[in-house]
Protein backbone atom coordinates (compact mmCIF):
# COMPACT_ATOMS: atom_id res chain seq x y z
CA UNK A 1 0.00 0.00 0.00
CA UNK A 2 1.35 3.42 -0.88
CA UNK A 3 2.14 5.88 1.85
CA UNK A 4 1.41 9.50 1.40
CA UNK A 5 3.98 12.24 1.97
CA UNK A 6 2.27 13.48 5.11
CA UNK A 7 2.26 10.04 6.64
CA UNK A 8 5.91 9.53 5.81
CA UNK A 9 6.74 12.89 7.40
CA UNK A 10 4.75 12.07 10.54
CA UNK A 11 6.34 8.66 10.90
CA UNK A 12 9.78 10.12 10.46
CA UNK A 13 9.10 12.71 13.18
CA UNK A 14 7.83 10.05 15.50
CA UNK A 15 10.89 7.91 14.90
CA UNK A 16 13.24 10.78 15.52
CA UNK A 17 11.47 11.84 18.71
CA UNK A 18 11.21 8.30 19.92
CA UNK A 19 14.88 7.72 19.17
CA UNK A 20 15.84 10.66 21.31
CA UNK A 21 13.62 9.47 24.11
CA UNK A 22 15.04 6.01 23.79
CA UNK A 23 18.57 7.29 23.92
CA UNK A 24 17.82 9.19 27.16
CA UNK A 25 16.09 6.28 28.84
CA UNK A 26 18.24 3.49 27.51
CA UNK A 27 19.86 1.39 30.24
CA UNK A 28 23.04 -0.66 29.79
CA UNK A 29 22.56 -4.26 28.93
CA UNK A 30 23.06 -6.60 31.78
CA UNK A 31 24.79 -9.91 31.62
CA UNK A 32 23.41 -13.05 33.06
CA UNK A 33 25.15 -12.47 36.40
CA UNK A 34 23.54 -9.03 36.84
CA UNK A 35 26.74 -7.01 36.31
CA UNK A 36 26.77 -4.31 33.67
CA UNK A 37 28.54 -5.12 30.46
CA UNK A 38 32.09 -3.95 30.09
CA UNK A 39 32.67 -0.72 28.23
CA UNK A 40 33.98 -1.12 24.72
CA UNK A 41 37.75 -0.77 24.40
CA UNK A 42 39.13 2.55 23.30
CA UNK A 43 40.59 2.86 19.91
CA UNK A 44 44.29 3.05 19.39
CA UNK A 45 43.99 6.61 18.15
CA UNK A 46 42.33 7.84 21.34
CA UNK A 47 44.87 5.96 23.44
CA UNK A 48 47.72 7.56 21.59
CA UNK A 49 46.31 11.03 22.14
CA UNK A 50 45.94 10.31 25.84
CA UNK A 51 49.58 9.33 26.24
CA UNK A 52 50.90 12.17 24.17
CA UNK A 53 48.87 14.65 26.19
CA UNK A 54 50.27 13.22 29.41
CA UNK A 55 53.78 13.43 28.02
CA UNK A 56 53.60 17.16 27.39
CA UNK A 57 51.95 17.95 30.71
CA UNK A 58 48.44 18.88 29.48
CA UNK A 59 46.71 15.91 31.05
CA UNK A 60 44.71 16.61 34.22
CA UNK A 61 46.30 14.99 37.31
CA UNK A 62 44.65 11.93 38.73
CA UNK A 63 43.28 12.33 42.25
CA UNK A 64 45.02 9.20 43.49
CA UNK A 65 48.47 10.43 42.44
CA UNK A 66 48.56 13.37 44.93
CA UNK A 67 50.36 11.44 47.68
CA UNK A 68 52.98 10.07 45.31
CA UNK A 69 53.60 13.49 43.81
CA UNK A 70 53.90 15.06 47.28
CA UNK A 71 56.37 12.36 48.40
CA UNK A 72 58.49 12.82 45.28
CA UNK A 73 58.49 16.61 45.73
CA UNK A 74 59.53 16.21 49.37
CA UNK A 75 62.41 13.90 48.45
CA UNK A 76 63.58 16.32 45.75
CA UNK A 77 63.50 19.26 48.17
CA UNK A 78 65.47 17.34 50.81
CA UNK A 79 68.12 16.41 48.24
CA UNK A 80 68.30 20.02 47.08
CA UNK A 81 68.77 21.26 50.66
CA UNK A 82 71.57 18.78 51.24
CA UNK A 83 73.36 19.97 48.11
CA UNK A 84 73.04 23.67 48.94
CA UNK A 85 75.81 25.18 51.11
CA UNK A 86 74.93 25.93 54.73
CA UNK A 87 74.18 29.54 55.58
CA UNK A 88 77.11 31.22 57.30
CA UNK A 89 76.62 32.69 60.76
CA UNK A 90 80.05 34.29 61.16
CA UNK A 91 82.12 36.74 59.18
CA UNK A 92 85.87 36.22 59.41
CA UNK A 93 88.68 38.66 58.73
CA UNK A 94 90.94 37.35 57.21
CA UNK A 95 88.41 35.14 55.48
CA UNK A 96 90.47 32.13 54.39
CA UNK A 97 93.98 32.34 55.89
CA UNK A 98 95.83 32.83 59.16
CA UNK A 99 98.99 34.92 58.82
CA UNK A 100 101.95 34.30 61.14
CA UNK A 101 105.30 36.09 61.23
CA UNK A 102 108.04 33.67 60.32
CA UNK A 103 110.46 33.42 63.25
CA UNK A 104 111.92 29.90 63.57
CA UNK A 105 112.37 28.65 67.12
CA UNK A 106 109.87 31.15 68.57
CA UNK A 107 106.22 31.23 69.46
CA UNK A 108 104.45 33.64 67.11
CA UNK A 109 100.92 35.03 67.08
CA UNK A 110 98.17 35.55 64.57
CA UNK A 111 94.79 37.26 64.92
CA UNK A 112 91.38 36.90 63.33
CA UNK A 113 88.28 39.04 63.69
CA UNK A 114 85.04 37.08 64.18
CA UNK A 115 81.64 38.75 63.88
CA UNK A 116 78.21 37.21 64.43
CA UNK A 117 76.14 38.22 61.40
CA UNK A 118 73.03 36.21 62.32
CA UNK A 119 69.98 37.28 64.33
CA UNK A 120 70.57 34.82 67.16
CA UNK A 121 73.32 34.00 69.65
CA UNK A 122 76.04 31.85 68.13
CA UNK A 123 78.77 29.79 69.77
CA UNK A 124 82.03 29.13 67.95
CA UNK A 125 85.14 27.11 68.61
CA UNK A 126 88.55 26.44 67.06
CA UNK A 127 90.00 23.16 65.91
CA UNK A 128 93.48 22.56 64.53
CA UNK A 129 95.47 19.77 62.93
CA UNK A 130 98.47 20.61 65.17
CA UNK A 131 97.16 20.81 68.77
CA UNK A 132 100.65 20.23 70.23
CA UNK A 133 102.16 23.35 68.69
CA UNK A 134 99.08 25.63 68.48
CA UNK A 135 96.49 27.01 70.84
CA UNK A 136 93.82 29.72 70.66
CA UNK A 137 92.72 32.50 72.99
CA UNK A 138 89.83 32.24 73.50
CA UNK A 139 89.33 28.68 72.21
CA UNK A 140 85.62 29.44 71.85
CA UNK A 141 82.95 31.91 72.88
CA UNK A 142 79.26 32.81 72.58
CA UNK A 143 78.58 35.93 70.52
CA UNK A 144 75.43 38.02 70.62
CA UNK A 145 73.88 39.20 67.33
CA UNK A 146 76.26 41.73 65.78
CA UNK A 147 78.98 41.17 68.40
CA UNK A 148 82.63 41.08 67.30
CA UNK A 149 85.68 39.53 68.93
CA UNK A 150 89.34 39.30 67.93
CA UNK A 151 90.79 35.88 68.68
CA UNK A 152 94.53 35.33 69.02
CA UNK A 153 96.17 32.17 67.71
CA UNK A 154 99.58 31.06 69.00
CA UNK A 155 101.92 28.77 67.11
CA UNK A 156 105.45 27.52 67.72
CA UNK A 157 107.54 27.74 64.55
CA UNK A 158 110.04 24.95 64.17
CA UNK A 159 113.29 25.23 62.28
CA UNK A 160 113.06 24.01 58.68
CA UNK A 161 114.62 20.71 57.72
CA UNK A 162 116.77 20.17 54.62
CA UNK A 163 116.55 23.86 53.69
CA UNK A 164 112.82 23.56 53.18
CA UNK A 165 111.09 26.81 52.24
CA UNK A 166 108.44 26.88 54.94
CA UNK A 167 107.21 30.29 53.81
CA UNK A 168 105.48 28.60 50.89
CA UNK A 169 104.70 25.21 52.42
CA UNK A 170 102.79 24.57 55.63
CA UNK A 171 100.31 21.77 56.23
CA UNK A 172 98.80 23.10 59.45
CA UNK A 173 95.13 24.07 59.15
CA UNK A 174 92.50 25.52 61.44
CA UNK A 175 88.77 24.95 61.45
CA UNK A 176 86.10 27.23 62.92
CA UNK A 177 82.77 25.65 63.89
CA UNK A 178 79.58 27.55 64.73
CA UNK A 179 76.47 26.53 66.63
CA UNK A 180 73.21 28.40 67.12
CA UNK A 181 72.23 28.69 70.80
CA UNK A 182 69.04 29.84 72.49
CA UNK A 183 70.37 32.92 74.23
CA UNK A 184 73.24 34.43 76.22
CA UNK A 185 75.18 31.80 78.13
CA UNK A 186 78.66 30.86 79.23
CA UNK A 187 80.71 29.06 76.62
CA UNK A 188 81.49 25.41 77.24
CA UNK A 189 83.05 22.88 74.84
CA UNK A 190 80.28 20.44 75.76
CA UNK A 191 77.85 22.53 73.71
CA UNK A 192 79.30 21.12 70.50
CA UNK A 193 79.45 17.58 71.89
CA UNK A 194 75.75 17.64 72.76
CA UNK A 195 74.62 19.10 69.41
CA UNK A 196 77.00 17.68 66.83
CA UNK A 197 74.32 17.54 64.13
CA UNK A 198 73.59 21.27 64.46
CA UNK A 199 77.22 22.44 64.23
CA UNK A 200 78.33 24.05 60.96
CA UNK A 201 81.85 24.31 59.59
CA UNK A 202 82.29 28.01 58.92
CA UNK A 203 85.76 27.99 57.40
CA UNK A 204 88.93 25.95 57.07
CA UNK A 205 91.87 28.35 57.38
CA UNK A 206 95.30 27.77 55.88
CA UNK A 207 98.47 28.94 57.60
CA UNK A 208 100.59 31.48 55.72
CA UNK A 209 103.94 32.74 57.04
CA UNK A 210 105.05 36.32 56.50
CA UNK A 211 108.57 37.61 56.22
CA UNK A 212 109.17 39.88 59.21
CA UNK A 213 111.97 41.72 57.41
CA UNK A 214 109.74 42.77 54.55
CA UNK A 215 106.83 45.16 54.31
CA UNK A 216 103.42 43.82 53.33
CA UNK A 217 99.82 44.91 53.93
CA UNK A 218 99.10 41.54 55.55
CA UNK A 219 101.85 42.05 58.13
CA UNK A 220 100.71 45.59 58.92
CA UNK A 221 97.10 44.45 59.31
CA UNK A 222 98.21 41.59 61.55
CA UNK A 223 100.10 43.93 63.87
CA UNK A 224 97.07 46.23 64.15
CA UNK A 225 94.74 43.33 64.98
CA UNK A 226 97.17 41.97 67.58
CA UNK A 227 97.38 45.40 69.25
CA UNK A 228 93.59 45.64 69.27
CA UNK A 229 93.29 42.15 70.76
CA UNK A 230 95.77 43.00 73.55
CA UNK A 231 93.86 46.20 74.37
CA UNK A 232 90.59 44.29 74.58
CA UNK A 233 92.20 41.71 76.85
CA UNK A 234 93.51 44.37 79.21
CA UNK A 235 90.08 46.01 79.29
CA UNK A 236 88.49 42.71 80.32
CA UNK A 237 91.00 42.28 83.14
CA UNK A 238 90.03 45.58 84.79
CA UNK A 239 87.37 45.32 87.52
CA UNK A 240 83.97 46.65 86.49
CA UNK A 241 83.17 50.18 87.53
CA UNK A 242 80.46 50.56 90.15
CA UNK A 243 77.42 52.50 89.02
CA UNK A 244 76.22 53.36 92.55
CA UNK A 245 77.22 56.40 94.66
CA UNK A 246 80.90 56.66 95.37
CA UNK A 247 82.05 56.36 98.99
CA UNK A 248 85.44 57.95 98.56
CA UNK A 249 84.60 60.73 101.06
CA UNK A 250 83.43 58.36 103.74
CA UNK A 251 86.94 57.83 105.05
CA UNK A 252 87.47 61.57 105.28
CA UNK A 253 84.29 62.00 107.30
CA UNK A 254 85.31 59.30 109.75
CA UNK A 255 88.79 60.75 110.18
CA UNK A 256 87.38 64.22 110.80
CA UNK A 257 84.95 62.83 113.41
CA UNK A 258 87.85 61.10 115.19
CA UNK A 259 89.84 64.33 115.31
CA UNK A 260 86.88 66.26 116.77
CA UNK A 261 86.33 63.56 119.42
CA UNK A 262 89.99 63.61 120.41
CA UNK A 263 89.96 67.41 120.74
CA UNK A 264 86.78 67.20 122.81
CA UNK A 265 88.23 64.61 125.18
CA UNK A 266 91.43 66.63 125.56
CA UNK A 267 89.42 69.73 126.39
CA UNK A 268 87.42 67.81 129.02
CA UNK A 269 90.60 66.66 130.71
CA UNK A 270 91.90 70.24 130.87
CA UNK A 271 88.68 71.44 132.45
CA UNK A 272 88.82 68.69 135.08
CA UNK A 273 92.39 69.61 136.01
CA UNK A 274 91.51 73.29 136.31
CA UNK A 275 88.56 72.55 138.57
CA UNK A 276 90.72 70.48 140.89
TrEMBL record:
Alphabetical list of Gene3D superfamilies matching this protein: Immunoglobulins
Domain of life of the native organism: Eukaryota
Region span, Disordered: 32-71
Stretches with biased composition (Low complexity): 32-48
Pfam families: Motile_Sperm (PF00635)
All copies of domain MSP, residue ranges: 89-210
Transmembrane segments: none
SUPFAM superfamilies: PapD-like
Protein family: Belongs to the VAMP-associated protein (VAP) (TC 9.B.17) family.
The protein's name in its UniProt record: MSP domain-containing protein
The species this protein was found in: Urochloa decumbens
Organism ancestry: Eukaryota, Viridiplantae, Streptophyta, Embryophyta, Tracheophyta
Amino acid sequence: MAISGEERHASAGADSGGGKLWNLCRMPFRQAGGAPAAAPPQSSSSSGIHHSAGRYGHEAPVAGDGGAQGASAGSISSVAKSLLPARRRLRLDPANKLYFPYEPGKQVKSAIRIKNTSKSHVAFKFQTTAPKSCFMRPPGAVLAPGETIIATVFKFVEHPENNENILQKCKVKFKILSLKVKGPMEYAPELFDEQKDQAVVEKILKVVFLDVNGQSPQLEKLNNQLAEAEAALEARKKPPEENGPKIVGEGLVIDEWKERRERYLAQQQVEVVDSV
